[in-house]
Amino acid sequence: MLLEELNIKSNNVMKLRIDNKSATDLTKHPIAHGHSKHIKIKYHFLRDQVNKNKLTLEHCRIEEQFAYMLTKTLKPKRLEEMKNKIGMHKLTYLN
C-alpha cells in the first residue's frame, strides 16, 4: 500500500525474510485455527497477504537478520560483521 501511495507500480510479489519459523509455518499451514486465535494480529495479516499472493515469507536464520544491528545490542565483533555485509564502512573526514 505504501508503494501505491508513492505511485510505484509493481506486479512482483514482495518477499519478506523472517526469523520466526512458527510465523512462516502458520501462513503456509493454518492448522488448528482454534489454537492460533490468540496469535497477534500481525501474523494473521501476514497470512492474509500470503493468501492474496501479495507477499511471500521466507525463513532466514537470526544471524542473517541485518535489522538486528539497529534493534538489538550486539557484541562489537558481530556488529562489525553485519556492517561489512551491508557495505557499511567507516568514513574518515578531512579537516
Q: Your description of this structure?
A:
There is one protein chain. With 95 residues, the chain is an alpha+beta fold. It folds into 2 domains: 2-60, no CATH class; 65-95, no CATH class. Helix content is 39%, strand content 11%. It has 5 helices and 2 strands; from the N terminus they run H-E-H-H-E-H-H. It has helices at 2-5, 21-28, 41-51, 68-71, 76-85, and strands spanning 14-18, 55-59. The chain has a two-stranded parallel ribbon with strand order 1-2. Helix 2 (21-28) packs across helix 3 (41-51). The longest helix is centred in the middle third of the chain and has 11 residues, at 41-51. The protein is flat. The N and C termini lie far apart (45 Å). The mean pLDDT is 76.
